[in-house]
Amino acid sequence: MSDTDRSHDVVVWGATGVAGRLVAAYLTDRYRPTDLSVALGGRNESRLDTLAADLLDRREGWDDLPVVLGDATDPASLRDIARDTRVVCTTVGPYTRYGTPLVEACIDAGTDYCDLTGEVNWVREMVDRYHDAAVAADARIVHSCGFDSVPADLGTLLVQSFALERHGVPCDAVRIYLESGSGGISGGTLASTAELFEAAATDPLARQALRNPYSLAPPGERSGVDEGMHQRPRRDLLRGEWTAPSPMAATDERIVRRSNALLGYPWGREFRCSEVISTGSGLKGAAGATLLTGGLGLFAAAMSVGPVRNALRRYVFPAPGEGPTEEEAESGNFRVRLLGRGTAPDGRFTVDATVGADLDPGYGATARMLGETAVCLVREDVDSPLDGGVLTPASGIGLPLVERLRDVGFTATVGDAATGNADGA
After folding, report:
1. Whether 238 contacts 341, CB under 8 Å
2. Is 258:304 a contact under the CB 8 Å cutoff?
3. For residue 84, what are the β-bridge partners?
4. For residue 72, how many other CB atoms are within 10 A of its CB?
5. Distance between CA 348 and CA 325 in Å, rounded?
6. Residue 171 Cα to chain centre, angstroms
7. Which 3-state string (H, E, C) describes 214-246?
8. Which pLDDT tens digit goes with each residue over 91-122?
9. What is the pTM of this model?
10. Cβ(248)–Cβ(177) under 8 Å?
11. Which of 338, 395, 66, 77 is nearest to 216 (CA)?
């Protein structure tokens, strides 16, 4: 089926959920119907109609927002949706439970796809089951297009592209620092977190995916020099500051390594990457790193015990569908800094990059990251040698997504650390 036979450019699947509403609101605010045809997808027609009416009431130039009905557990309805759109942009998680039939439907229809999953075990399953089929269908299945893992993945691409252009060689290692951030959390995010712990407790393959730092690399290439996530407070030698483990490292580091592999190892087979949280210098920084590490360890320990995990899901976590409002999503902020170290013929060099925005990272910023990913796919605005496959933001789209994010208010700078010469704004 050609693109001209399809009714929609983008279907926002799960449009009535917290993240889905924000993506739909962003796309209809940023674009006009002449630029982008958007449909709202889900299983509850009444809620979808209410959302469509609300968006139409608040958006100039939009006279119609089609509603498409389906069910995440009904493959036939998903195939119909995939065949009638160029891109499916999905926010329906936990993906381990609800995501697979939609991936299958998109590959069957030759339809591009993007999501915001951080569920490493599920991404590993999609790689093993569907990468070759997606390549054959020229379907781009692009995972982790939100705060997991656009800042880390595209930030690393920025660092390495600058290093190759300026110094002629890539960085041997890139460290990703979560420097600051504020924002809310929804029931859907916590449900996905709980699903990840559930899979780790019951599925040996999921445990393997979480243990192996290279679990998202192509089959036969799942080993290397990286030892995996930092597990304790450390004094960082690059910055002379204390750091704590990052809860996002389990996803972000593996996505970055998959990008390197899919692109043909332009950063070398011995490339290293790691992600940490900056806590500052001196005794205050050490104390902060220790407290943060302890808190993350207690949370992980609690979530690893089935009865405790179930009790938290039932009595403590907000229900799926609950989360920040559109206004609250616009009020947070985040800043991710990346330092890359490499060796050129004239000596060692350090590349410094920053990715950030004055938006809630998990919602306002993620809505823009996921929405612009979908637009890149619709418009073929990609810089990638890959026409299909189970991909990452850096390998499936690349630097054009950075430019789009800059255009909608993100900071994305890169330059030599020694000179402070930066590209971008």
Report:
1. yes
2. no
3. none
4. 21
5. 47
6. 23
7. CCCCCCCCCCCCCCCCCCCCEEECCCCEEEEEC
8. 998 899 999 999 999 999 999 999 999 999 99
9. 0.94
10. no
11. 395
